[in-house]
Amino acid sequence: MLSRRKLVLAAWAPNPGIHPSLKVFFEAASEDERVAAPALKELARLWRPGYAAMVVDLTRVLIQLAGAARDPARSAEPVIDRMVRFLEERTRRTFDRKVADWQRWMWGLPYEPHPDFGEFKGLVYANIDQRMRNFFPPGVESRIRLDRIDWGGVRVNGIPPLRNPKKVPAREATYLKDNHTVFGIAAKGEAQAYPKRILAWHEMAIDRVGDLELTIVYCTLCGTVIPYLSQGHKFGTSGLLYESSKLMFDEATNSLWPTLEGRPAVGPLMKEPLQLSFAPVVTTTWGEWRQAHPETTVLSLETGHQRDYSEGAAYHDYFGTQELMFQVSARDGRLKNKDEVLVVRLPGKTPLALAARRLAREPVFEYEHEGERILVLTTKAGANRVYRTGDLRWTRDGALRDGQGREWREEEDGLRREGESLPRWPAHRAFWFGWYAQNPTTVLVH
Q: What pTM, to 2 d.p., does this model score?
């Protein structure tokens, strides 16, 4: 561990001024007390509250690497204890090694980071995977708080994306039962199903559906699947999180993109006016999707990876409780952490979140949001489809009818009757805690 850190530091030159150089932070974590003592003294002399995030980041990685160390003689336990004591002395907080408590406290502070905080994160995470340094080069810019970016416990692409995955016709998918959860996408008459039991192990599928080139991102921690139009970008999994949500990266520039936003937040593309569009998706059962789309294809179990793809195997304990695996800066108690909401994002409007339980009780759900009327149709299996309907009102008495009694056909890409159509509007499910942490102004209907 220390030899790797020394290699990382070898190319450095100190940054003199009112802020301590980054080298001082790493020297403070040295196993050699003769190196650490003067570094800690220098940090104490120049201390600012914004440095707490750097000490927490460094200590967190030390804890993680110490837990994985195979050579007891190189234990970092004394170093960790020293860093924790120093942090407690500077902040007058006593959270010991409880990283989540330190994060919750420091996120409540004004964001006044060290000017080289981004580069520091890259150097810290390089001790996990040298490729992570590419996400935080010297001078890196960000439009999000860097102290809210956390390591997710894996290396770059350590959760391997599926690229052009093998698919089979529905009749050959004998491994699936009717009640198994799938994410369904349809375009240009082509339908494909992505079983949760497979996608949860990979969290990303680069695929084509109809005429759409898609990056289908599944953030298991925040419970959302979003099929983004790739728009010429080739994405991977960074191994990092923002507000307990997956950060993907584009391979051309190593910019980081929050999953829930679909636009770059850290790196060279941060200031570009980029926004990925996304396609409609439904969370439903295999039986319901197959009945609606008998011609559908579905992911094969032959993914090229060895995983336990049985139903419910991935993240079983996490999905079964309201506990979080990683800290977020804000929560809202109107719903439980992992209660599902349907997120509707209309251009120029405040985000709208509709509680999935409410939609299940009201399968024909109409709502006016900031002057825009929407209709949400929900199936017995819980699949939600959203439409922008203008002034029309709706009922369903076996058939779907508008307020004038005219019958409409429900098709995957929209509602239709002779001479008229209402296209489907993209929307996606999410755990309430994950969506709210990044979108606290969201209007919630529950």
A: 0.93
